[in-house]
Amino acid sequence: MSGESPAPASRPRTAGRRRRIGLALAGGGPLGGIYEIGALLALADSLEGLDLVDLDVYVGVSSGGLVAAALANGVSPAQMYRLFIDDGADAALKPEVFLKPAFGEFRRRAAVLPGLAWSAAGEYLRDPFRRGVMRSLSTLSRAVPTGMFDNGAIDAFLARMFAANGRTNDFRRLARKLYLVATNLDTGVSVTFGKPGQDHVPISRAVEASAALPGLFPPVEIDGEHYVDGALNKTLHASVALDEGVGLLLCVNPLVPFDATGASRRGRLTVEKLNHGGLPLVLSQTFRAVIHSRMKVGMEKYRRLYPDADVVLFEPDREDADMFFANIFSYSQRRRLCATAFATTRHNLRLRAPMLRRILARHGVSIREDRLADSARDVRAALVDPRPIRADPHAGRSVRSASRDLAHTLDQLERWLRGRAAATR
Fold first, then answer.
1. What secondary structure letter does DSSP report for 144?
2. What per-residue confidence (pLDDT) applies to 291?
3. Would you tell me how many other CB atoms lie within 10 Å of the CB of residue 203?
4. Across the chain, how many H-helices and E-strands are there?
5. N or C: which terminus of the chain has fewer CB atoms within 10 Å of its end residue's CB?
6. pLDDT, tens digit (0-9, with 9 covering 90-100), for 223-233
7. CA Rg, the chain, in Å?
């Protein structure tokens, strides 16, 4: 199996835990994945007794699948920041990987175009008055590419990353449960990779399938079936984790409808009519509204069907213009967006602290009141993870790379010591 590791990818679960804890991450493209990393950094920094790389069950959809797969493989949110968001020495997933044209799909469609053109011409000439030109030309629609960009690079990148020591690209070798949801294009049915019968598929390939947003990326073929984005049926698929007997399920949904009127009224936006932004903004708002309304229905259903489980949802501020208008292909904007997600999640925790304190305590988790009360605490304080991370296990261990890892570790240690010194003053 691609990227198979000789040993389970993670250490044994913490002993003595009374109830199982899970994490469900919704989709939202690269933008959503960035937001989720920021939110998870806030949760890791603000909650005591919660190790996000040592949970019992992970469920991911679309870009949330990439984040969930990394967590299940022991990659912390701080390490993901260095890999996916920062532009330092550890940066491994560049923005241009999402913009590589799907040349293979273009070639396949171009190859059938001559035959389709002859077929369309023949149909028209046989009965031009009944069929008409437009009806005959509709045959050519089969030559239109099913996606503009090649998502195979995501599979290749993750396969390399999960081939490193201590990680695995095999669902069956993980020490934790990981489920990645995609949609079967021919049946419209959700398929959960990681469940028995679907756990032989490489994790990296399952992430690619779950994130294949129609129109942007071609469907992904697995065992003769074609799969597209897992969010087509549900936004979170939280029931996959709840069916595993999870007592506490933390959920992050990065996409909510933008309240342009409210943002304008509070001085966060100069123009309150999204129609002025053209078709892209209209489509973005429509997509957000549809998936969010569907998720709200799902959350109510979870409360009825799983009354003994605590489901806690974290979402962005609906008036956050940065989240709605962000250019995810700019490193500076990606860092700002992640910082915004960190601050928003901390604010959410402060507002809901009286209720969340009781819920989390039932599962051995407590809120770090001192950190939430520190208004100057920002995302940089949560990036202390001295472990070096290499996305490509075949890159070699040169003296230069070892020196870089040591320097990074010392920098992180120095930052931690400064923080401790400031806290004790």
1. S
2. 83
3. 34
4. 15, 10
5. C
6. 999 999 998 88
7. 23
Pairing of strands 310-314, 246-252: parallel
What confidence score (pLDDT) does residue 67 get?
Answer: 96
pLDDT at 158 over 70: yes
193: which strand partners? 180, 195
**DSSP for residue 101:** B
CA 289 vs. chain centroid, Å, equals: 19
SS3 165: coil
For residues 376 and 95, give the distance between their C-alpha atoms in angstroms, rounded to a whole number.
30
Q: Which DSSP letter does residue 301 get? A: H
Side chain identity at 75, as an amino acid letter?
V
Q: How many CB atoms lie within 10 A of CB 316?
A: 26
Distance between CA atoms of residues 242 and 197, nearest Å: 20
Measured CA to CA, the distance from residue 315 to residue 111 in angstroms comes to 45
The DSSP output letter for 218 is: P
The tokens for 33 are 């994945």
User: Pairing relation of β-strands 57-61 and 177-184?
Assistant: parallel
3-state secondary structure of 197: coil
Which pairing describes strands 220-222 and 57-61: parallel, antiparallel, or unpaired?
A: unpaired
**Facing residues of 149 across strands?**
101
Q: Which pair of structure tokens corresponds to residue 406?
A: 């040591």
Distance CA 228, CA 208 (A): 9
Give the tens place of pLDDT for each residue, 237-276. 999 999 999 999 999 999 899 988 887 777 666 556 788 7
In this structure, the dihedral spanned by the alpha carbons of residues 81, 84, 88 and 92, taken in order and rounded to 10 degrees, is: 140
What SS3 state is found at 146? coil
